[in-house]
């Protein structure tokens, strides 16, 4: 009965790691076990070989325990679909070296066995800590050329390691020795392996529902037993190098072995414990890299996305459990994972099934697995190795822009084959970083360079002031910077600025679009300041404000360089570009520091809009107006309020602020002495679209709609001219706004 239909569900914490296997998971787990288990037994025997021939059974049992425990726990806790975890070559290399070192010192073999357990447990705990610290997430920064080269390198390594077995040469014979000695080849092994690989490739092209790996194993086994008809020596397991042979799973029994390992704890000394740390750290690093690299390759093949930190924690827990139970450490293994993937694996239940099948094979099916030909597994892995070779980077040679990326791929492949996968990863990431720095260094971080006249401030100024600014606009320049400013591109930045800091009176640097800067970039800004200061010019910095984390870091670094000192005479700092441009405009117009609060309030006749009217007309108008006073920061009118009042600035400054919703507010216009504001809502009788705020202590004339209508009855010409003048002013402001929008679109 379906548990969902019955209304019963597993607890969420249990359901998270219990996954119902599908048919593909069963086939994939079985196929992966056939690759992982024999290899794990070999790794275990290799580790324990240093202790003497009598420990071979311990090694075989350690490989089996590792396959079962790691396969089940890592897959159930890790959550990476299709990943197969089992004892691996890096674990065998580190642990065997550790065992050989202790054996060379004459340590008790039983103490060495316990020390191997302790190294595995400690390495697993380190992996758990790495995952909890978020180190696993760094894997996402590995670039595609490195992953591609790693994938191809692994494929070539698998091919190279399996060719001697495919040729049937004696164990221990290297690749080149095998290829160079045709007389040592075994035609029987070649026939078995070739048929296996051929059936596997053909089944993949035919898209059969039965996994090609299993068909290949069946085909290889059939060829083997066909040969056994004419060769009686192939009908026995003893001294038969063509088959896997007995797994050696019985040993002295799991319980007896477990007690024996931990029973040696009383014979450990301080020197033994001191030697654990280095080997454990090395083992943890190798296993973590091996696992996460396999996950990255698996993501590429399946278009999935794994959780690196969760996987590290799961692998660590699995290694702690495996080592504590007498197994050897392991990781996500490339060969078994790809075998499972090619055999129909669909979810993380594949790894769990692999562990279950490993247990069943060791306990029940040892006799059957023992008859699988070695060349069959070699043929499968050679076929998979060819599939792993990534041919996509060959297209990189078709363009000069990607030739260097191809060289990165080639370098990773060469180092992977000649040195090792970990060294290949380091080389690939290093080369990718060099290419990144080179690419960033070649481009300019100057997003836009503008003359002052091309990007005026939003402050509305009288026509005479606009004409004066037009004549003086060449004395100021604006640089909008972008991206990341670091040691690789700051030289080019200084080259772009050098001519301007020697000729301009004002240099504005807008950092709004700069994500981060380093010490070298901050030092370049300091050099720009010094060069400008020598000429008596001004450096204006803006955009490094707000609550952004990157802006806070920029401010901190610039402050350390003395660029944000409030009493500086050569550097001015503003929160936004509009404020910086307005400051420069004021300086160019007045040639002195400008403080609105020091100015006298304007009389009505001094305002440009009312110039030329008779005194009695202005007297009537002024009598209808009110004078209001505002302190800095006070709201004059709010967004959405009725537009029934018109304002003229007598003293101070006013800024219009638009709401951007969740993104805060933005200044859209500014008004100084003699300017009027509030005209748009006054004319169309709609609510205020923005908020008006006093920037400094401010006085304004206020004319209400009712008073304007009364004036219009008595002074029709004044009312008409006033409305016409407001319309012309609004049109002029609209033109300036269009200029600013055009500048933004171009940038």
Question: How are the SSEs placed, and which strands pair?
Answer:
Elements: H1 12-15, H2 23-48, H3 56-78, E1 85-87, H4 89-104, H5 109-132, H6 144-167, H7 175-179, H8 187-206, H9 212-230, H10 254-262, H11 270-274, H12 276-302, H13 308-324, E2 330-332, H14 334-342, H15 349-363, H16 366-369, H17 374-388, H18 403-418, H19 421-442, E3 446-451, E4 459-460, H20 463-472, E5 476-485, H21 490-503, E6 506-517, H22 519-535, E7 538-542, H23 549-560, E8 571-574, H24 577-590, H25 615-624, E9 626-630, E10 635-637, E11 645-651, E12 654-659, E13 665-671, E14 676-677, H26 679-684, E15 691-694, E16 698-704, H27 705-714, H28 716-746
Parallel strand pairs: 4-13, 5-6, 6-7, 7-8
Antiparallel strand pairs: 1-2, 3-5, 9-16, 10-15, 11-14, 11-16, 12-13, 12-15
Summarize this, please?
This protein has 747 residues and is an alpha/beta fold. The chain is 57% helix and 12% strand. The strands form four sheets. It has a five-stranded mixed sheet with strand order 3-5-6-7-8. Strands 4-13-12-15-10 form a five-stranded mixed sheet, with no helix packed on it. A four-stranded antiparallel sheet has the order 9-16-11-14.
| Structural Rg | 39 Å
- What characterizes the major β-sheet? 5 strands, mixed
Mean pLDDT equals 80
Supply the number of helical segments: 28
The percent of residues in helical segments reads: 55-70%
How widely separated are the two ends? 65 Å
Strand arrangement in the largest pleated sheet: 3-5-6-7-8
Instruction: Estimate what percentage of residues fall within beta strands.
Output: 5-15%
Low-confidence stretches: 1-10, 249-254, 592-597
């Amino acid at each position: 009965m379906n548990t969902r239909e019955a209304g019963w569900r597993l607890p969420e914490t249990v359901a998270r790691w219990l996954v119902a296997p599908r048919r593909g998971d069963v086939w994939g787990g079985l196929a992966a076990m056939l690759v992982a288990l024999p290899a794990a037994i070999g790794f275990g025997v290799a580790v324990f070989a240093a202790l003497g021939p009598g420990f071979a059974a311990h090694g075989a049992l350690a490989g089996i325990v590792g396959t079962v425990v790691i396969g089940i726990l890592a897959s159930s806790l890790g959550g990476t679909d299709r990943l197969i975890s089992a004892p691996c070559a890096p674990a065998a290399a580190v642990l065997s070296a550790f065992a050989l070192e202790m054996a060379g010192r004459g340590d008790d073999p039983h103490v060495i066995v316990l020390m191997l357990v302790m190294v595995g447990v400690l390495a697993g705990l380190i992996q758990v800590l790495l995952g909890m610290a978020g180190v696993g997430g760094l894997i996402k920064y590995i670039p595609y050329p490195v992953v591609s080269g790693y994938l191809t390198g692994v494929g070539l390594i698998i091919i190279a390691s399996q060719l001697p077995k495919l040729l049937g040469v004696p164990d221990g014979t290297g690749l080149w020795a095998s290829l160079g000695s045709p007389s040592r080849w075994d035609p029987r092994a070649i026939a078995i392996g070739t048929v296996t690989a051929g059936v596997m490739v053909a089944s993949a092209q035919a898209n059969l529902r039965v996994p090609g790996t299993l068909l290949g194993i069946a085909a290889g086994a059939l060829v083997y037993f066909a040969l056994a008809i004419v060769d009686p020596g192939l009908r026995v397991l003893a001294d038969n190098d063509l088959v896997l042979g007995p797994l050696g799973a019985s040993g002295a029994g799991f319980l007896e072995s477990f007690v024996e390992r931990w029973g040696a704890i009383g014979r450990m000394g301080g020197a033994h414990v001191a030697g654990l740390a280095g080997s454990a750290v090395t083992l943890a690093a190798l296993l973590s890299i091996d696992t996460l690299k396999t996950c990255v390759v698996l993501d590429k093949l399946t278009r999935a996305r794994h959780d690196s930190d969760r996987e590290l924690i799961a692998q660590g827990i699995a290694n702690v459990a495996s080592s504590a139970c007498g197994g050897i450490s392991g990781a996500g293994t490339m060969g078994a994972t790809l075998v499972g993937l090619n055999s129909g694996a669909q979810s993380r239940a594949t790894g769990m099934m692999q562990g279950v099948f490993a247990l069943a094979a060791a306990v029940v099916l040892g006799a059957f697995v023992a008859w699988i030909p070695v060349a069959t597994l070699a043929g499968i892995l050679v076929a998979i190795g060819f599939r792993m070779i990534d041919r996509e980077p060959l297209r990189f040679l078709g363009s000069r822009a990607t030739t260097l990326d191809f060289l990165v791929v080639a370098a990773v492949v060469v180092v992977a084959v000649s040195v090792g996968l970990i060294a290949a990863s380091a080389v690939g990431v290093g080369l990718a970083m060099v290419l990144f720095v080179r690419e960033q260094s070649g481009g300019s971080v100057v997003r836009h360079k503008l003359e002052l006249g091309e990007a005026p401030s939003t402050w509305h100024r009288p026509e005479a002031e606009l004409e004066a600014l037009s004549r003086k606009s060449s004395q100021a320049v604006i640089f909008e910077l972008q991206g990341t400013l670091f040691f690789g591109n700051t030289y080019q930045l200084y080259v772009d600025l050098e001519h301007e800091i020697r000729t301009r009176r004002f240099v504005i640097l807008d950092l709004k679009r700069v994500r981060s800067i380093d010490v070298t970039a901050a030092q370049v800004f300091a050099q720009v300041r010094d060069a400008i200061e020598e000429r008596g010019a001004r450096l204006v910095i803006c955009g490094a404000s707000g609550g952004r984390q990157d802006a806070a870091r920029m401010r901190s670094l610039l402050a350390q360089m003395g660029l944000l000192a409030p009493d500086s005479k050569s550097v001015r700092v503003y929160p936004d570009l509009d404020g910086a441009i307005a400051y420069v405009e004021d300086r160019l117009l007045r040639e002195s520091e400008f403080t609105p609060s020091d100015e006298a309030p304007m009389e009505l006749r001094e305002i440009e809009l009312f110039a030329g009217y008779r005194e009695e007309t202005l007297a009537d108008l002024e009598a209808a107006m009110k004078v209001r006073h505002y302190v800095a920061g006070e709201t004059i009118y709010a967004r959405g309020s009725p537009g029934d009042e018109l304002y003229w600035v007598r003293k101070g400054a006013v800024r219009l602020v638009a709401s951007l919703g969740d993104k805060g507010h933005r200044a859209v216009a500014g008004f100084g002495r003699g300017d009027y504001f509030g005209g748009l809502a006054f004319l169309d009788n709609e609510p205020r679209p923005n908020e008006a705020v006093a920037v400094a202590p401010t006085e304004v004339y206020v004319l209400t709609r009712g008073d304007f209508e009364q004036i219009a009855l008595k002074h029709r010409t004044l009312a008409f001219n006033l409305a016409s003048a407001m319309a012309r002013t609004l049109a002029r402001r609209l033109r300036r706004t269009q200029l600013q929008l055009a500048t933004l679109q171009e940038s």
